[in-house]
Predict the 3D structure of the following.
Amino acid sequence: MRSRFDEQLVMLNKELTQMGAMCEEAIAAASKALTMGDIKLADKVLSLDGEINRMERTIETLCLKLLLQQQPVARDLRQISAALKMITDMERIGTQAADIAEIITFLDGRTGGECEQIRFMADAASQMVTESIDAFVKQDVVLAGAAIDRDDVVDDLFLQVKSSLIKLIAEKPTDGGYALDLLMIAKYFERIGDHAVNIAEWVAFSVTGEHKGA
Amino acid sequence: MTKKIFKSIMVVAGAVLIASLVIIMGCLYSYFSNVQGKQLEDELSLAAIAVEKDGRNYLEELQSREYRLTWVAENGDVIYDTQSDGESMENHADREEIQEALRNKEGKSSRYSTTLLEKTLYCARRLNDGSVLRISVSSVTIWVLVLGMIQPILIVVVVTLILSGVLASRISKHIMEPLNRLDLEKPLENDTYEELAPLLNRINKQHKQIDMQLSELQRKNDEFAQITYGMTEGLVLLNEKNIILNINPAALKLFHTKRSSIGKDFLTVERSHNVSHAIQDAFSSGHSEIRIEREGKEYQIHVNRIESNGIVIGAVVLAFDITEAAFAERNRREFTANVSHELKTPLQSIMGSAELMENGLVKSEDMTRFVGHIRTEAGRLVTLIDDIIRLSQLDEGCDMPFENVDLCEIASEVMAGLADIAAAKDIEVALTGKKVYIKSVRRLLTEIIFNLCDNAIKYNKNGGTVEVAISSQENSASITVKDSGIGIPPEHQARIFERFYRVDKSRSKESGGTGLGLSIVKHAVQYLNGKIELQSSLGQGTVIQIIFQQDKSDVVQFS
């Protein structure tokens, strides 16, 4: 009985890792699509989002099944409940990457070169997701902490993006729509950063049993 | 152990208890019943004498509780009984002891009561008048005795239980102690029960066997590690559950992980979608390969399923660094595309002019211009093809004779040839340096200096300068071409020696180059075992230095 449970837990971990990898890929593709103005890549992000959503359903079902059938306690319970929370954040990351991709398709190939910080943001957010997924895979609380700390960088960058976009609008009012699109993208990156922080916090919770956000 | 000893002690104690109980009870009981029988006989003989003398009176006067006396007539009718009314009693002629007494003068018997708890002993004697006197006494049976002893027996049993429990645990402890102290690492050095010697011998034998197998295993493992350690290709062995069994240093570097990842899921090391997909593919279809990019390098990854007797037991992941191959392949593809494009452009232009002339659209006064145009383009084509032939000659590495040549002489020859173009752009060309003889190929040197100077002039500002300097050190000679031209942006510097590569794609036609000049220079210098150094800053000019390492004796310097 226990060995079957263990197997299912291993499977849960595997699927979570895969889902995390997809999120990483989605946000990496989204930021690359932005900097290269590559619409094809943006389409890829959209299809990845669909896959991430499906994955969320699968993992959710598995978690609920485990909770009902095995009635886990202590560490196992933490792991499963953390998984349940993490997939929500991962799903949001996927969806927001898809939202970014969708905006990119409306940018007519413009790459946000006017506002360099948005590229830094893309990189930083992408790295945060990678770090938090890494922390999950390695069950590494230190790495999770690094991901959480990096959020400040992303938040700072968002403010910088905002002020530079205000300048852009002031200088070139015809680019107002474009600037707003960029602002939306920046906001999505900022949100993705927040979700990465959530994931990192749940990783720390499943390892230590203490949730920092609480 | 304790349980077993306890059980055996209990069985032995129980057996002894029961046996001694049976024997003692049996002996005692038979002794006492014997005694009782004798007493009964004595009593009877006394009573018989008394009855013969006094008759019924004796019996009536007899006050005995213990014994019961019955006087039975010869026909079996009861004459008198000391404990009940004789008249009302049934005929006793069929009683065993009476019959016996009638026959043999004396008779005996015993009968159990219905409950088996009481036994009545009878003794009868025929009197002189033929009647029979019977005496009877009731005594308890052996069962009653046993029942009476149950309490002490139970106490004994409980005491035995406790005692044997304590004893068993102590004995087993005592027995186990030397066993627990056994040193199984060196089984033959133990001083313990003799009975254990065969076991210890066997353990010793197995130890040796295990040691041998271990060292064999270690040896094989070492062999495998040595083979995989030196490999430049990354190698990962996975079992059927995707767990890493082995990973070599090249793979550790590629996947950014440590040896501690052995025993973990490969997903924890490399979770990218396409790699995990490729592994899944390999598990289901036997083989898969993908290309991935890591830190600017390209890797080809092959995944092969391993089977044993038709059962999948794992997979091998092999990663090849194909950066150079991919680069070469890309270059080749680009070269082919470029060559066809470059060849087509002048031809297209020739065809356009020719078509115009064919359709009579060219006025006769323009004819010369058009024909001239065709000639220039054809000349361009010839130059291009010449360049390509020269390059492919260099590529093929055909043998060219090395001779003593004077760098200065070649340079001045080349510069004389370029004087016209330089003059057209009002560029001042200067040659400095002394005669330096080196062992080299004249044609290639001419090629090198020509292309360098040609570029220096072509990509110069009007009124600029080109300085060519020949110099020699102890064991090297160098040609330096310095211009005051437009310079090369840093991001292009690494690529300008590629075929058909142009910094400013839009200017190619204007300057009339083929895009192969520097490529020819690079190959020629390579052929001559030289080295190219490039320094350039945008808008300031470019310095290209070609250095030839020479044996001391080959450099002849004239001062």
Remarks:
- The two ends of chain B are 107 Å apart (CA to CA).
- Chain B has five domains: 2-148, 186-229, 231-321, 326-379, 399-557.
- Chain B has a mean pLDDT of 84.
